[in-house]
Amino acid sequence: MRVGSHPHRAGERVHVTDAPTRVATRRNRSRADRRLDRVTDTLPPRAVDLPASWTPGEVEAGIYQRWVDAGYFTADVTSDKPAYCIVIPPPNVTGSLHIGHAFEHTLIDILIRRRRMQGYETLWLPGMDHASIAVHALVERALEAEGTSRRKMGREAFLERSWAWKEEHGGAILSQMRRLGESVDWTRERFTMDPGLNRAVVTIFKRLYDDGLIYRAERMVNWSPEMRSVLSDIEVEHRDVEGELVSIRYGDGDDSVVVATTRVETMLGDTGIAVHPDDERYQHLIGREVELPLVGRMLKVVADPHVDPEFGTGALKITPAHDPNDFEIGRRHGLPMPTIMDESGRIANSGTEFDGLDRYEARVKVREALARQGRIVAEKRPYVHSVGHSQRSKEPIEPRLSLQWFVKAGPLAQAAGDAVRDGRVAVHPKEMEPRWFGWVDNMHDWCISRQLWWGHRIPVWYGPNGETLCVGPDDTPPAGWTQDEDVLDTWFSSALWPFSTLGWPEKTPDLERFYPNSVLVTGYDILFFWVARMMMFGLYANADRGPAEAIPFHTIALHGMVRDQHGKKMSKSAGNTVDPLDWMDRFGTDALRFALARAANPGTDAPIGEDNVAAARNFGTKLWNATRFALANGASPALPLPARPTDADAWILGRLHEVREQTDALLEDYQFAKAVEGLYRFTWDEFCSWYLELAKPQLADPGVADGTRAVLGHVLDALLRLLQPVMPFLTEALWQGLTGGESVVIAPWPTEVGRPVDPAAAMRVAGLQKLITEIRRFRTEQRVPDSRRVAARLVGLDGAGFGVGLA
Asked: What is the pTM of this model?
């Protein structure tokens, strides 16, 4: 191995350091353009001089706009390239970019950018969800401040106001997606209430209705008294609260029974008492009736195996219209189901003095009335128990029997399960499959109606004599008929997203080219709420394409939730939330993307903190300065690789060959963290820390300098292309500076790079590394300053694993 102790560098003297980059986010635009021009315009044949430091805040916006203007992200439906399509999980129109969005979008962008470089016709389709409940909450809050309400102003005026809000305030996240560098096709941006998507919603509703897969019935739902609407399960958060557990005696003497409840007011709607069929304490009561206090209604005592005889007294009061478990028991035993609470959460139709009281007022008044009658046996306060709360309004939800529209889930869910069982759709990681089957194999019918106005109105009309008609998108309802007041659950239109965004139900070129989608990247937390429903509707709506082409996507790639650096869930109450825009301002977009990808292991949560982003920023600085050093010393990928490389050159080319293969294998398996970690270690530990130091004396040796310049250029060219999907802005500036090429975005993905490993050269370099490490350790232990030269004799090298030929 040729090594030297006094390197003389050619050209500018550049030190590879870890100094932080300067991030400037609010600069004069003309200055930003001038700096961007230095990096990306008027390039000489090989390279440009790079600025001393990378200032992402000054150049990122300009670089991104040039990518968009060049059409790099626009899919060509007429090309003969293989198609690769991902539709974005649509963020709410009310939303801003949070850390979860940044995480998920970074992973999708890595996949899309890599496939684009690999020669695929890529489509990453952006868009937003209309977010019924969120928009309602915002608009109604504004109306309340004006002294009015949606009910006072009427449906049409409220919808006009909602559209105006959407145009003025909605979609902030789209500009923030640009900030993150997302390579989406902006020419195909969609919104779930666009006319075309509304047509898709009405079309599939009518098909499902005509096939008997949509029906209307009274069922138990999550009810929001504040919104006066049904909520989906995902919009309900369960948390422990301090309440009360009150034991009440029903009946008298031998016919009496004690029941316990946390919601005393619901006893006004009791229609039965359930006990376990094997509970000896109540055998004499089964089939008999017990009087309900305050109301006077007679309650039948039924035997049901659902009852836990070990809990409380072993007797369960049954309120079928206000408790999901009671509803099922009531159905099994044919019990009446009176609703004793109205849409606003007030007692109604109970036939008692408590009608008109709010549910919480009634809780106190009913308990006091029972106490006056001597019916209270015991009271426990505080009693900690789990209560569902509205995610939006934070109020406790009310389980309530209500007339709603439902999708019959059974046959659709069966098809969704079969698509994974027979291998048409892969769940990644495979360990998540049991969770998938747990959902789809036990799916209940889906409540799809919401008592709101902003959204897709249910296309069912009612005639003057009670007739019902489902009206398709090209049909006209009979004169004088009235449309159903409810709108569809937001998840209904979102379930059509993989194909409605491509033009379905029309057979558009986009639909033919990009459906099925290639992969869905999403969090495991919405596997049921969104992914399963996309599978159900995709298979149903596209059945005419055949089993293999009906699926909405080939792969479901699941990721976990972003946590704080200690692994704790982020929440405002815990004070550990982070703003990705702040991190981008301070450290640059590439640093945020790199840190997020480095934390992304399939299906597991991703802890991240500011230190991770700072480390990623330092990595970018390291790469920037390494490239400047290479350029200052005449490195170029245009130079031919040496026929007889030095050991150092052969070693780094062999490592590049291995790292490229490893990176490809890991990204194909959605192992983002391992792929990025491998690139980090190769860049920092091997290329910068070892090869650049070994290259310095070689660059001073005329016999090998040109070969080393070629190797430097070759390795950096490949490395920048490998890193482009993760760090697109930094690699764009460096790659253009190194190669003079148009853009690394459209450069070919590295395939045959480096050279196969030279075992002998690798062994000698390993020996040299070991030797240098030992010398450094010795100097540290002996406290010998780096500036002091010490005479030394090295012995026993051949027998100590230091390689050969190093004398």
From this structure: 0.87
